[in-house]
Amino acid sequence: MKKIISLICLLLIVGLWTQGWSQTWETRGKLTTAIYAFEDSIQHQRVYETVRFEAKHDKFRFNFAGRAMMDMNSDDETDDERLLKAHSASISGDGLFNGLLDFTVGRQFLHPGLVFGSLDGVNLVWHPMEKLDWQMYGGVESHLYRSFKIYNSDDATVYGTALRYRDVFNSTIQLVYFNKSTADETQWEIAGVNLNNRSLSWLNLSLQAHNDLVNERLHRLYGQVRLIPSERYNLVFRYKQQYPQVYGDSFFKIFDIKQYEQLSFGANYFITAKYALMADYQMVSLADGEGNANRLYITLSDLNGSIGFIYESGDLGDETGFLFDYGYDVTEKLTVSASVDFSRYRLEEVYDYERQVGNAFKLAYKFSNNLRADVEYQFLNNYVKYEDHRLLAHIHFMW
Fold first, then answer.
1. What is the SS3 assignment for 137?
2. What is the rounded distance in angstroms from the CA atom of residue 192 to the CA atom of residue 219?
3. Which pTM was predicted?
4. DSSP letter string, 291-349
5. What is the pLDDT of residue 247?
6. pLDDT band of 153, cuts 50, 70, 90
7. How many CB atoms neighbour CB 273 within 10 A?
8. Rounded to 5, what percent of the chain is helix, strand, coil?
9. Is 124's pLDDT higher than 60?
10. How far is CA 139 from CA 1, 29, 228, in A?
């Protein structure tokens, strides 16, 4: 698989170059230098270089997003796999052959109608009809730390397909299939259907039903109803029944995998054009009567930030917390922001309540449209560490 992917990439690059396109690519990108200073058992002064880059010509694009890290003040050896990361590195084309085909080759993030993640491989989307899309993808799962290493096909082979038909009675219907295997076993094989309907302007319905073919059980059932009676407020009802998606070689395999159900109700109310009030209430129930939990989350926000309250109770623990996140433009170029996170919690009734406070204060300055910088001070206090002070600084260059 790795040889095939490398060969395809090489042929595409050579083909584009020989066509004389190398002189007409439009590029844009962002280069960020970050310094992160903190202390655990030793002091750290880490320097991160992050780059996002896109080159485009006509229907073709090259994308890259990567990061390099170095610890300036530590003799600890960090795994090479964590020093250099490639979050994405791909060549893609859109609307080829009179709009019939889109393709992406390389490392890419995928959400093909179900939760997946990052893939090192090929993703093809065929448009045989105006309203019909057929997606086919395959390769290997991207490295855990997103290093430049590519897994062997025996470690994590992934392939799947999704067939989507749009505008059927104002609905979108999608059939999905996903397979993840190692040389020894099929870890996941999931097939299902997704449906979204907007027949009425004030009503949006969504449904997802996915079946786990390996364990012969319903893997995920999700439904959402969004009511929009007016521009001032909307209501959302959600129901989810699901098994955790834990792969066979995962550390979490040591736990007994249980199904859970979640029922939630949310409301958004726009008090004025500037202020909005949001509330969300959730109930969670574990299988076999092993526990129930409740969660209430309320926030008041405007264009600059929000203040919120969270309350949790039940068999999964108790928590009361307050959240604050706000920014203020001192001048057109200088922005000051602060965030506070305070919580009081316990995991079980037999334990005493613990307290945690996290703060962050940030200054951001815009030198020009291409150059910006910010510095942030972070403070954390909890039962593990009485005082944790950290400093984070960025310099962003965009073109």
1. strand
2. 9
3. 0.85
4. -EEEEEEEEEEETTEEEEEEEEEETT-EEEEEEEEEEEESSSSEEEEEEEEEEEEESST
5. 62
6. confident
7. 8
8. 10, 65, 25
9. yes
10. 7, 27, 41
Q: What does the pLDDT read at residue 138?
A: 97
What span, in angstroms and rounded, lies between the C-alpha atoms of 292 and 295? Answer: 10
Yes or no: say if 63 and 92 are a contact pair by the CB < 8 Å rule: yes
Q: How confident is the model at residue 119 (pLDDT cuts 50, 70, 90)?
A: very high
Contacts of 193 (CB under 8 A, 6+ apart): 173, 174, 175, 176, 207, 208, 209
The one-letter code for the residue type at 330 is V
Strand partners, 323: 308, 341
User: What confidence score (pLDDT) does residue 42 get?
Assistant: 80
Q: Which residues contact 77 (CB under 8 A, 6 or more apart)?
A: none
pLDDT of residue 265: 97
| Torsion angle of the four alpha carbons 243, 245, 251, 257, in this order, in degrees rounded to the nearest 10 | 10
Residues 83-113: pLDDT tens digits?
899 999 999 999 999 999 999 999 999 999 9
27 in Cβ contact with 55 (< 8 Å)? yes
- Give me 210's structure tokens: 């996915």
CA–CA dist 207, 131 (Å, integer): 20
Helix, coil or strand: residue 80: helix
Give the Cβ contact number of residue 268 at 10 Å. Answer: 17
Please give the Cα distance from 122 to 73 (Å, whole number): 41
**HSE of 388, CA atoms in CB hemisphere, 13 A:** 18
Please tell me whether residue 282 adopts helix, strand or coil conformation: strand
More confident residue, 18 or 190: 190
At 142-152, the pLDDT tens digits run 998 899 999 98
- Looking at the chain, the whole-number percentage of residues with pLDDT higher than 90 is 71
Cβ contact 115:108 at 8 Å: no
Find out whether 139 and 131 touch, Cβ atoms under 8 Å. Answer: no
Q: Which of 101, 89, 164 is nearest to 134 (CA)?
A: 164
Max Cα–Cα distance, the chain, nearest Å: 72
Q: What is the Cα gyration radius of the chain?
A: 25
**Nearest alpha carbon to residue 332 among 367, 371, 375:** 367
Which has the closest alpha carbon to 31: 51, 11, 48?
51
Residue whose structure tokens are 């076993």: 185
Q: Write phi, then psi, for 25 (nearest 5 degrees).
A: -80, 135
Instruction: Please determine, for residue 4, whether its predicted confidence score (pLDDT) is greater than 50.
Output: no
Report d(CA 338, CA 356) in Å as an integer: 17
